[in-house]
Amino acid sequence: MRVIRTVDELRREVGEARRSGQRVGFVPTMGALHEGHLSLVSAARAASGVVVVSLFVNPTQFNDQADLAAYPRDEERDAALAAGAGADILFAPGVTEMYPDGYATSVHVRGVSEPLEGAHRGASHFDGVATVVTKLLVAVAPDVAWFGQKDAQQVAVVRRLVTDLGLPVRIETAPTVREPDGLAMSSRNMRLTAADRPRALALKAGLDAVAEAVASGADPRGAEAHGVDVMRERGVEPEYLALVDPGSFAPATDLALPSLAVVAAKVGDVRLIDNLPICPQPHTEEPS
Ligand code: PAF
After folding, report:
1. What integer best gives the mean pLDDT of the chain?
2. Domains within the chain, CATH numbers bracketed
3. Collapsed DSSP state (helix, strand, coil) of residue 28
């Protein structure tokens, strides 16, 4: 695996591979790689001739400077894991390569970026994500880019921008990878204290409670309220727990259509997110 620091060199390398007829798969990351990232790299490996993984802790998507400073960074470890999962190129630019002096452009995706994560982390979060993903997609020019379903709203924002800007790339997702006890894998999990680790399971418990309530015939707001109660019983107050339309992230109103239960909560000092697809319930006839 080659480590590349500049966009020019990346373009040369990927361009050569493309000219030799290889398909290019791309997995953008901020490092601190875990099984979730590696499942994306493996999926890209299986579907492409050349696999590019980016490693860039993007400062513009952090609304909290303490969160940015605390973000785990270990390039040697990440490079070994990416290579082991099948990456051919690790693109690991410095901040000035991505945002040179005088940089002044931002990509803003209206609508889907605004509720939930957008509202709680501030509008600048998804502006930062949309901007860096656009820059990465333009730099790598992959055939397919792979994203984790755990960051479901990020995926929806990226799909919107790819459609709106007409970027010639297919967006693929891979399912959330979980620890054996159900906790969604996240680079932030390593910051949970031993005392907080069991409480982190409240997020999945809240999502499961929403799914059970829907299966029992609850309406969307009733199902959300049940999920919130279950999380509170486990000592965790959600920032939000909502049933949404998976494309627009607007509140779900019709459970005959697929929806997504999404949750965010702080467990100790660590902010976690998770989600669960909710399948439409079979229609049952009212007794006459
Ligand atoms: O999901 C992430 O790790 C980041 O938001 C991404 C897509 C690499 C952009 O910085």
Report:
1. 96
2. 2-174 (3.40.50.620), 187-278 (3.30.1300.10)
3. strand
